[in-house]
Write the structure tokens for this entry.
Amino acid sequence: MELSDWLDEHAEGWFWYVKRLSGNDTLANGSHQAGFYIPKGVFFRLFPSLEQHTHENADSWFDLTIDSHPDARNVRVVWYNNKARGGTRDEVRVTNLGGGNSALLDPESTGALAVFTFLHGATGDVDTCNVWVCRNEVEEDIVERETGPVEPGRWTTWPPDGGLLALLQTAARADCRLEQHELPPEWLKKFPTGQEIINKVIELRPDSALAVDKRLVRRRDCEFELFQSLEEAVELPRAKAGFATIADFLAAAQTVLQRRKARSGKSLELHMREILIEENFDENKDFTYQPKAGNNPDFLFPTEAAYLDAAFPRERVRMLAVKTTFKDRWRQVTEECADLPVRHLLTLQEGVSEPQFKLISNAGIRLVVPEKRIEKYATSIRPHIVSVESFLADVRTA
């Protein structure tokens, strides 16, 4: 079955949970937690009968079929809840998936976008789950056209029949979620650019004393919350007012999804540019952002002019590509500054299989990952990944 047909087949009556598989979900980092993670709020919606259970490791069984990689089995969902009794765990995972034979545990699936569709049974709890693990970038684009971008470490739920109101639902207020009266008035008339949103994030999260890696992650989280609150302030009144035609509704939904995709595509590189400036890197003297040379990498150090200067020592040139996820997209980096022996790739992806990491390394690409996220990678891979701070230190001494 084609993915588009599968999505249509699982539209009416199914509840979607969409996430990117991390190294903790698969077997990529050797974690004993193998089995995909479900947030407790989603878990209680899927299995309401277990919400009031206080006994240790409340569980349920249901049928799970992976339609993208034909595999069907009866699996167990477990609420590891010993924290209430002095333990350390309070999380939900699905187990009994069949080990490495399952596409959900295959290390090669790390970073892949997975769509879990659930159907409730007569008891009110889920008894059926159909899954699609995206096999390439094309399939991921098809899914994200329906759900909007899904970034590493985040997830989304999607009742396809929930309308625009469901699309605009947001979490409870967090530090960077602003009420309508707290937003710049001009933003309510014309949606701000990505750079304008980043500037507001820096105002809310100056964080100049924080280490670079932590600063980058905190600001990304802040931006996500700020964008959600702005989107709600602008679009929710329109959604509540209703639409005269189906075409009007579809146009509004498409605008929301396209705006989310545009934000996600530029966000990380804009944050990185601001951090470079804060760390006393002079743009156009110490780095060039979005140079044309070298097949359009995101950053060149010290400058594009230095890269183009045949007399400038090649060992002092650094190139940085920025991709939130890289499961398939890392190959694009091989076409950027191909004459450099090493290219660097900044990413937020949470893990990679050892065979794929070997391919990436052999292609002369070195991963740059915020420090805490390096823990998501296999022990054997971690020494070969550099943190953002380590990368900047290397650039300074080049």
The first helix runs from residue 3 to 9. The chain has three domains: 3-158, 180-278, 288-397.
